[in-house]
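Write out this protein's structure.
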Amino acid sequence: MTDAHTHAPAPDTPIPVSLLTGFLGSGKTTLLNHLIAQPEMKDTLVIINEFGEIGLDHLLVAHSQDETVVEMSSGCLCCTIRGDLKKTLKDITWRFAEGGRRKFNRVVIETTGLASPVPILHTLMTDSFIAERYRLDGVITTVDAVNGMATLDNHLEAVQQAAVADRLLLTKSDLADAATLASLQARLRTLNPGAPQLMPQHGNIAPAELLDAGLFRPGEKTPDVARWLNDQAFADDGHGHSQHDHDHGHQGHGHAHHEHHHHHDVNRHDDHIRAFCFTFDAPIEPTLFDEWLSLLVGFKGPNILRIKGILNLLGEDRPTVIHGVQHIFHPTVTLPAWPSEDRRSRIVFITRDIERATIERSFDAFMQAQAITQDEHKKQQSSPYHY
């Protein structure tokens, strides 16, 4: 017999999901305790996975074999899962409902501190039932300001948690000396220039600083592309993450290419991480772009931690937004209009063991093929024997 939840209709607006990650001891639970007490978190469902740091300061009101549910006075529900996250996301749309109405409008998932959050991002993107009902709002990563440098040195998982973040929270900053804090901030900017760095005190931070970090915000018709993409951070961060401007014509491409070399132990994991933004002045031929991106992720997918971009595709009046994690991509989104007069395509990459020059060369090869094809087409059009 088919489960009832498989027939649950998709909501008109997908439910935003925030992913809270960070290494063990970095303050995720302290932050969560503060957040779930805020009125802005009303109608939020918090999911803590089975290896999460469980220590919420709230009364347990229900127990079951599969999960423990905490209900907060703020209106939040908290579910500690001991099973499959995919099954939980499918079930909660009807398990946490009353009178046919869902009791939550937002989900926050706290991940284990011992692993990369990438598999959870894959779950949100790959299952058709989940993808219709949920959308990734943002990845929030906590970093211990006192021990963060050592954690990044010794644990690749912590590096990946920071690299894929939309928001970086430096916890315990009041306990760190100025030099240690400045070094950590600089290192995190190198890893992930596009993620704003915030410094909550004892977990105290306004939910608005963390939530609605995605392309779309509730109640707003126009997507905030500039805030979501934050491509200016890659051009202006002072760490050599320059833009790569293409005109796609027959002139030189003007490869602005500056690598930043870290002045620290070469064995550090983040020496393998690259963060950069490509900017393309001319519209991109969509079929070639799709072929190029498919080939790139086919060969390099496991090492492409995250891709975000807004594209000006040839023949399209409106911009197209792409968002991927490794070899998995959200369905592309066509925006109703360009958010500004800027019509350039901009793609942000965060990679592991892939130099920007590798991506440049592969893209340029495809773009040169486009230029040759266009030239041949023009010659055919101008030929007296063209019919």
